[in-house]
Design brief:
The chain folds into two domains: 104 residues, Response regulator (Rossmann fold, 3-Layer(aba) Sandwich); 246 residues, TIM Barrel (Alpha-Beta Barrel), CATH 3.20.20.450. It has 17 helices and twelve strands. Strand 11, helix 16 and strand 12 form a beta-alpha-beta unit. The protein starts with a helix and ends in a 9-residue tail after the last helix.
Length: 381
Amino acid sequence: MEHQLARIGVARVTTTSSSKSALDLIKKGENQPDVLLCDLRMPQLDGPSFLNELAAIEFKGGIIIVSGEDQRVLDTVHHLAESQSLNMMGRLKKPVQLKELKSLLLGRETHHYEDTSTPIALRPLSPERVEADLETALCPFYQPKWDVHRQRVTGVEVLARWKDSTRGYLAPFFFIPVAEEYGLMDRLTFQLLMLVLQDIKRLQPEWPNFHYAINFSVETLEDRELPNLLEELLQKYGVSPSQITLEVTESRISRRRSNMLEVLTRLHLLGFSLSIDDFGTGYSSLDRLKEIPFSELKIDRGFVSEVATSHSHGGAIVRSSIQLARDFNMKVVAEGVETRDVFDCVVDIGCDTVQGYFIARPMGIEDFVAWLRTGFQPPSS
């Protein structure tokens, strides 16, 4: 593993003989790791116990699970760790492939600087820099969503990127956890939304009925003033609430209940669409789906990627999720679709919308406009 990390430009790697010695090193507070690679079978403490200890000391670095265990075990441990607010970057099955490791360390979509000869900087941005440069460095990227029934792109998901003068466009891993920890998420969300509304104003003449999905944190969705603030902001830019979908990640819904249900209901009444993101990763109860007026269900990429695999549990989860969505009168989005086989499968089993690299990578506004004008059609087999 050390050799693989060195090959992709990681300058310093610290290894320990056991999980307890790793914990001791972290607790000392010296040279805190930016990213921690964790096996599930280790001397003294197993993987889940080790992750519990990391949560107890509020470890803030990124974590990647590396194991030869069954994929379901990796997925379960990953989701349990996320439920404890650990910063999970992903999971890798042994033997680890260099491309997969590099993709996770780069935040998966930071392809703008993947091929440079400079060593890869994995350190997240400092809180001071995030706070100081938020208005100038934050920018929206757009990933198209293909409407299966209309056979065209009818909307996008908005993804936050950070424009860095030396490293290009940074993925959320480099700045979102910092914003969450230091109370900057409201400011970041509204800055991103204002940039998107400016872009919508530009896109409206040619693409008047596009829909734009943007992720909102649970903390922001607990603010009772949010419906009024969003209504005023959209009126200022001449954008209808019906064009905006607010995405909320399933794994975080159950943590807070006080004001969120009221806020989501009021947003629904104003005409905003509500989407439950990464469905299947957060163990939502059916009561939660019944209480909150979601109009869209986005199936997690981890399950979608397995849908074309024989004897796949992921495929069974996708099928049952589609049926559940139908029962609740929700549309279904399959995210993370990267191949023709997966695209054909999710279309055949009834997904309404497809999103992923097979359709297009996330793009800045100029590239997105140029892409739209090409009159895209999915690649043929």
